[in-house]
Design brief:
Order of helices and strands: HHHHHHHHHHHEEHHHHHHHHHH
Oligomer: single chain
């Protein structure tokens, strides 16, 4: 009996440790860890009592009810093949709260150890990302996430930074305290390196809420004001800088088309195209173009021909025109001649704006958003900006909701209906398999307004019930997860739904500081109740 109890304990703690470490590192071990937890659950025995404890745990029931909503959506779906696949992906919504509600509560030192394991795993992943950052010329920052999606990884880094800061604040050992603070600083720094706008916004929003709300409970008003200024100051300055940069990039210069020079220094005629090209760094890309000279001079200086593709799969012609515009050079032989050998190499590698090479990465990110905005406004082309793609997807979601407002399209019909609507809209996103990129819109599209009301009610209930927001770790996990839903389909992928279920269940159910009801109704620390 003792051996069985020990084995159950090792599977239990080992499964939790591997699961929390797998979130930033491996989808494969994420699945293995959940199987280990299943073995631990079976070894613990006394199934009837423990199943009853699940039904007495209101938070666990609330989270699991999200899965029930999707089961109900089978009643009016037509694509059962996708519906079954979707239910399989979302199975953690049922399994994780069920197991966590029927497992013994974690001791404080066990919770602390698991948080450090999560921070260590996230630090390893950020170390790999940083190595890529300093050893490669990074054009697409999604490449910095080696194992999971860029945004999901950034959210985990954001959460790990807050959690390790909390542990450092409450740590009694000075060495561990100092090391934890340094680790929190490193993870915060990596948020800026990863350049996920979503995670940075969530980071500042979460910090503001925590200081604003918990400050009224635990610290003096003067400390609250100082902390709010420290957080709000950089955030407000950042907003000002973003809007100023966006305005400078997109501000259309004043010019009189009739007063522009008509001929190059070589005597060839310029073309001034004010309809096919957009603004780049506050300069009109369509002015002062002489394609004959541009092509001839470029082919002299580069092995990649004028009509061929650069390293990013873009036509060199357009990359060259954008790059010249960013340097305020004319699109003629003189403009190409003015480029350095490094500039030629940059264009061949697909770098379309000289400013993208600067150390001011915030400016680069804003400029790219501005360019995407112009492409979307002028040509309805969303390929240049993830933000414009999201706007297009949100519009499509609303169109589908208007067709089935109360009950939605059903659990399995969302992908096909989404694809059909994009086709009807003649969207450039057709055929890419994309969906809402907003969890609330995804729920409403699939399950209707009734489904949305239920989903939001669950989110409100689990944090309000028994004042769960008073737990710092529960609050930050909740804020990060809920904020992510405004820009992501958080529970539509295995990694996302595990992220959602694990941390909410971990801090709201499994953590010993959050007992749900009378202690006698909870599983005890005996890991094997079966008799031989």
């Amino acid at each position: 009996m003792g051996n069985r109890s020990s084995i159950a304990y090792y599977f239990y703690m080992g499964g939790l440790a591997i699961l929390i470490a797998s979130l930033p590192l491996s989808k494969f071990t994420m699945s293995i860890s959940q199987m280990m937890l299943g073995v631990a659950w079976l070894l613990m025995g006394d199934y009837r009592t423990r199943i009853h404890s699940f039904f007495r745990n209101k938070v666990a029931l609330a989270i699991a009810s999200i899965y029930l909503m999707h089961l109900i959506g089978l009643i009016y779906t037509s694509d059962f093949t996708y519906a079954i696949k979707d239910l399989r992906v979302k199975f953690p919504l049922l399994v994780i709260p069920f197991m966590f509600a029927t497992f013994p509560k974690l001791k404080k030192e066990e919770t602390r150890a698991l948080i450090y394991i999560f921070a260590a795993a996230t630090t390893v992943a950020t170390g790999i990302s940083f190595f890529r950052f300093i050893t490669h010329s990074v054009e697409d920052y999604r490449d910095l996430s080696p194992f999971i999606s860029h945004i999901r990884f950034s959210l985990l880094v954001c959460l790990a930074a807050f959690l390790i800061f909390y542990q450092a604040w409450n740590e009694s050992n000075k060495t561990i305290k100092s090391g934890s603070f340094l680790l929190a600083v490193w993870l915060t720094y990596m948020l800026f390196v990863l350049q996920s706008a979503t995670s940075l916004i969530i980071f500042f929003a979460t910090a503001f809420i925590i200081v604003f709300y918990l400050g009224f409970i635990r610290v003096k008003w003067i400390i609250q004001i100082i902390a709010l200024v420290v957080i709000a100051g950089p955030a407000l300055f950042g907003l000002y800088y973003i809007f100023a940069t966006f305005n400078n990039f997109t501000k259309i210069p004043e010019y009189d088309i009739h007063k522009l020079e008509k001929y190059t220094s070589s005597g060839n005629r310029y073309k001034h195209d004010t309809t096919s090209y957009w603004i780049e760094n506050g300069r009109h890309g369509g002015l002062y173009q002489c394609e004959t000279e541009l092509k001839k001079e470029w082919n002299k200086r580069s092995q990649i021909k004028f009509d061929s593709l650069d390293a990013n799969g873009q036509i060199i012609r357009y990359t060259l025109i954008r790059y010249l515009t960013s340097l305020d050079l004319r699109k003629d032989s003189a403009g190409v001649a003015a480029l350095s050998n490094d500039d030629i190499k940059n264009i061949e590698e697909g770098i379309a704006n000289h400013d993208y090479l600067t150390d001011n990465r915030l400016k680069t990110a804003v400029n790219q958003v501005a360019l995407g905005y112009y492409q979307y406004i002028w040509k309805k082309d969303t390929r240049g900006s993830s933000l414009m793609q999201r706007i297009e997807l949100w519009k499509t979601s609303i169109q589908l909701i208007e067709k089935n407002p109360w009950f939605g399209t059903g659990t399995g019909d969302l992908p096909n209906d989404f694809a059909n609507q994009l086709r009807q809209n003649k969207s450039g996103l057709e055929g890419l398999g994309l969906r809402s990129h907003n969890q609330f819109l995804s729920i409403t599209t699939a399950l209707g307004i009734i489904g949305l009301i239920w989903f939001v009610s669950v989110l409100v209930f689990i944090i309000v019930y028994r004042k769960r927001w008073l737990d710092f770790r529960a609050l930050i996990s909740y804020c990060i997860i809920v904020f992510s839903m405004f820009n992501e389909d958080t529970i539509e992928t295995q990694a996302g739904v595990t992220f959602f279920c694990f941390f909410l269940s971990f801090f709201l159910i499994l953590n010993a500081d959050n007992d749900d009801g009378n202690v006698k109704n909870q599983p005890d620390r005996n890991y094997s109740q079966l008799t031989t």
